Amino acid sequence: MNNRGKLITLEGGDGSGKTTLLEALQKRLLSLGYAPLVTRAPGATETGKKIRDWVMHQKLPLTKQAELFLFLADRAQHVEELLLPALKEGKIILCDRFNDSTLAYQGAARGENLQFIEKLCLFATQGLTPDLTLYLDIPPEEGLLRAQAAVVKEGKPSYDRIEQEKISFHEKVRMAYRALVEKEPGRIQLIDARQSPEEVFQNALEKVLHLLRERNGGC
Q: What are residue 10's DSSP bridge partners?
């Protein structure tokens, strides 16, 4: 049996339903006897919380290079402080966003060199790669409508910096994610986020349990 933990990441455009799915997976895994560590990027550490507030909500001008390096700084702290120790302890990690978000948002959508950014991501994360990535695919128009509804329903303070980008930006994000799925079809599993929350959950759960069965020697 491989006692190393597993890193499962959730990816998707804004309004794709990652938070809902993350909570549902956490609840089911707890009921099955697992104790998953649920975390997110950016904002999982004290340092990350300050970075998240600065890059997402402060009305300060940021160049695309500055935005990229702030996200990478968060990720480096996140990996060193939380993820690597948890994996060493054998924990199952559910993480809302990881390197694929940087490649899609700060890379493809910002028109930057993806190979260069991929190297930066690997450096920031000490080469850590998810064991499984669940990508929730949804047309940007529908996803942004969901995100806007959440602002009203949940009383969020405002749209964040990324949500305020033009629809063309979000279309590039989706194209980048779908390209990543084609590039790494084993690690990255596409789930149609236009399905009902229950259908999305069942689809995701099947993939997560398959990974965990492999970890436990197929039992």
A: 96, 134
